[in-house]
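(Fold this chain)
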Amino acid sequence: MNIKLFALVSVGGLLIASVAGAQLMRRNYDEPKHTVVVDEGSLQIRNYETRIVAETRVSSADWTSGVSEGFSRLASFIFGKNQDTSGQSAKIAMTTPVEAMPADEGHIVTFTMPPNYTVENLPLPSDARVKVRVVPPTTVATIKFSGVARSKALASLEEELKSFVSSQGYR
């Protein structure tokens, strides 16, 4: 079974994941239903259920500016740059995780939608660069750490996470 790798870091109330990508998590926000399959302290394997996301692709090669641009574009969508079924703008609650992944010539930034929405009743993005899609059930490995998510630290965490995943029989 293939598995996504994420490293989680707690910074100012945020839980940020990075390695093969990043996942931002904040306490007291809705998050998708999941089950923790393996829990070994800072290392976990989680099974996420199907969820709806809004995502955008940014062409910036720089991680910080690319993630910032994508986050701003998606924030505009949930704060009302959209159209609901009655043709009105609607605010959508912030949830976790927010994901950022490297992609060909840039990054993909993704917001998870609140559980009360379906693809049919979710307001449509006004910005054509924002797409809505359904994410099938996903298995994710996480590692919690403190500090700043810099390239050198992430490389070491990625190796630790890969070793953990392998030891659990995943690839």
Remarks:
- The helical segments are 63-78, 151-167.
- The longest helix spans residues 151-167.
